[in-house]
Amino acid sequence: MGKQKGEFAAAEVKVSNRGRGRFQGAFTLVELLVVIAVIALLLSILMPVLGKARKQARAVVCRSNLKQWGLMFAMYCDDNNGYFFNGLIDGSASESGWGRYWRVIMKPYSQNVKMWLCPEAKKPQPGGGIPTGNATRVAWEYEDDVGSFGLNGWVLNPPPGVTADVFGRYPVSDHWRTSHVKGADNIPVFTDMWWVDAWPKDGDQPPPVEGGPADTINTDEMNRVCVNRHDGFLAGVFMDWSVRKIGLKELWTLKWHRSYNVNGRWTKAGHCPPGNWPAWMRRFKDY
To answer: Torsion over CA of 263, 268, 272 and 278, rounded to 10 degrees?
Structure first.
C-alpha cells in the first residue's frame, strides 16, 4: 500500500507540473489589453503616414502620365515644323468645340486610356459632361473621352483667316503658335484641369471655393486650372517638354500667353496682399 501511495503521489505531482507548464506562457487579460492598446497606438501613428505615402505615389503617377503627354506633344510639333494644331477639325470650327481640336488629333498618339487621368480624379461625375460641385476631384467626360488634364488654349496656331478670336478668346496675336520660343520652361502646355481646355489671363480671379464655380468664356478661366489635386499643387507639362508640380498660387506667375504679365496683381511681385486670396487658398505658398 505504501508503494502504491507513493506512486499515486508522484503521478499527481507530474500532472500538477504539466498543468503549471501549460499555463505559465499564457497572457493575462491585462497583458492582452496592453498589447491591443499598443497595436492601436501604432496604427494611429502609421495610418497618416501611409495615407501621405499613397498621395505621394498618386502624384508621381500623375506626373508620369503627363511626361508621356509631353513626349506626344513634342512628337506632334516635330512632325509639323514646330507648330501646334490650328484649332480646327476638317477645316471647321463648329466641329472643333469641347476640346475636339486636340482630343481627335492626339488620340492616335495616346492609346492608353489611363494616360488621360490623374489618379486623384479617375472617375467622371454621374452623367459626365462639365464637372460641378467639387470639380477638382472628378474627371471631365465628353463623347467617348474621359480625362482630368486640359490644354492651354493659347498654344494654338490659328489659321491665317482667323483674325478676331478663337472660340471666343482674343486677341489672336496672344497665341504662341509654335514651341520654338524663349522661356519655354515657364509656358504651360498641358496641366491638371477640371475641363478640356482653358485660356487663362493674368487678371483672372481665383475660384472663390475649392471646387471651382461655373465659368464664362474669356472670363476667369484660370479657375479651370486652379485645381487642388495634390495638396496645394497640381502638375503640368511645359513648352520645353519638362514636367513638374505647380503651386496653386504659382499659376498666376506662369507665361500663359505672349502678353501675359507674370508680375500681375495676384503675385508677390505685384504686391498681392495675402488676405486678397479666397479663404481656402490662403494657407498655400505665395509666389
So the answer is: 110
Could you tell me how far CA 130 lies from the centroid of its own chain?
Answer: 17
Whether residue 179 contacts residue 84, with contact meaning beta carbons closer than 8 Å, is answered with yes
Note if the pTM is more than 0.70.
Answer: yes
Three-state DSSP at 148 gives: coil
- 85 found inside a domain: yes
Q: Which mean pLDDT values do the consecutive 10-residue runs of the chain (287 residues) have? A: 52 50 65 80 71 79 96 96 91 79 91 90 81 83 92 95 85 96 98 95 94 81 95 97 98 98 97 95 97
Report the number of distinct structural domains present in the chain: 1
Range of the domain at 105: 62-281
Tens digit of each residue's pLDDT (9 = 90 or more) over 128-169: 777 777 788 899 998 889 999 999 999 999 988 888 888 889
Residue with cell 497595436: 39
Residue 194 belongs to a domain:
yes
- Asked if residue 22 is part of any domain, the answer here is no
In a domain, residue 286? The reply is no
